[in-house]
């Protein structure tokens, strides 16, 4: 019996344009400016054309994403990748705009999918969400010591609607996300530090970001734990450096 051939590493082609959009509600979210500064430095270092919109209403979250999609589809050169950073107060599945109205994350994510954004079809779309996803607070627990493609020659190659997408949340479903009044959020600060100073495929870098779970945060005089959550439908390795 012959040994199976090793899988060949497939990478996303990152030779084209890289575009980023950040939508951030700063109202009643002290420390947001520190996060925006860190993201600006990261996008500049990684070669992204970056746009920032502060204090969008719920409707403007949707409108700015749709404008971003139109910009991408109209871009004069090939586009390799898009990042969308969403920062606001929130709950599970929703973000709160500057006007206190809610917008569904599902509606925002759909704007750049393979159906609605042709220029990003089969290309990586990365969403970074810094927002609460519920009201639970994690006190932590003590740790003891102790791609398959089936395509016939006669059929056209198609792609599912929701592939090549990466969702990176600052916290898991149902839990609060934390932010320091001056230093910004541990999540954004850790993510930008890792992306700027380490190399490797993005999912490996995000494994390093989740190590922020080792840190202890204090709120209301009590120690809290928090860890990001990563949801991926990427089909290839994505290298940013």
UniProtKB/TrEMBL annotation:
Q: Does the keyword Cytoplasm apply?
A: yes
A Pfam family (short name) is Peptidase_C14
| Classification via CDD domains | CASc
Domain Caspase family p20 residues, every copy: 29-136
Going by the UniProt record, its keywords in alphabetical order are: Cytoplasm, Differentiation, Hydrolase, Nucleus, Protease, Thiol protease, Zymogen
Q: Which GO terms describe its biological process?
A: cell differentiation; positive regulation of neuron apoptotic process; proteolysis
Where does this polypeptide localize?
Cytoplasm; Nucleus
Query: Which GO CC terms are listed, alphabetically?
Result: cornified envelope; cytosol; mitochondrion; nucleoplasm
- Quick check: keyword Cytoplasm in the entry? yes
Q: Which residues form the Caspase family p10 domain?
A: 155-241
Q: Which family does it belong to?
A: Belongs to the peptidase C14A family.
Assembly state and interactors?
A: Heterodimer of a large and a small subunit, both processed from the precursor; the mature active form is a p17/p10 dimer and the intermediate form a p20/p8 dimer.
Protein name, entry field: Caspase-14
- What species does this protein belong to? Oryctolagus cuniculus
